[in-house]
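Bumping with the actual sequence this time:
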Amino acid sequence: GTLENGITYFALSNEAPGGNFEARLVVKAGALAQEPIGSGVAHFLEHMVFYGSENFSDGIFEVLESYGIDSATHLNAWTSCDATTYTFTANSSENLGMVLKALDDIATSAIFPENLIERERSVILEEARPDESIDGIEGEVIEGMYREGTPYENCNTIGTDEGIRA
């Protein structure tokens, strides 16, 4: 369906195991929408929105955890070339309203506490460390083969070291 404000939503019922839900916010902007390309801004914003908003001034993680929603197992987010996705799961229908409020705040009223910017920059720099395992090297080679000659060729979702530091 489509809400009055133009947001498209999808609802799917799954009776087994029942009593659980997953809510996602998909923003149709990812690493290819950032300027400059390779800056990592889209990925950085994906991280920072959890640190506060209009209704969650002390951070979304902290408030949702007080409702029994564990940030380590029930919250996830990722940035791709085309989109940024936030996913929340829980096993209580009472938590659905709070999760939807959190997703709305991510979309409409996120704040970026200056005192946490450097801390998160360090987290992202650690994430960006090249994977020198055989799986990491193989993944880079295969990804390069499929992206070569496409609009995704220069897509760097996490950002370059230089971009992240800037």
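The tokens above came from a reply further down the thread. The chain has a mean pLDDT of 86.
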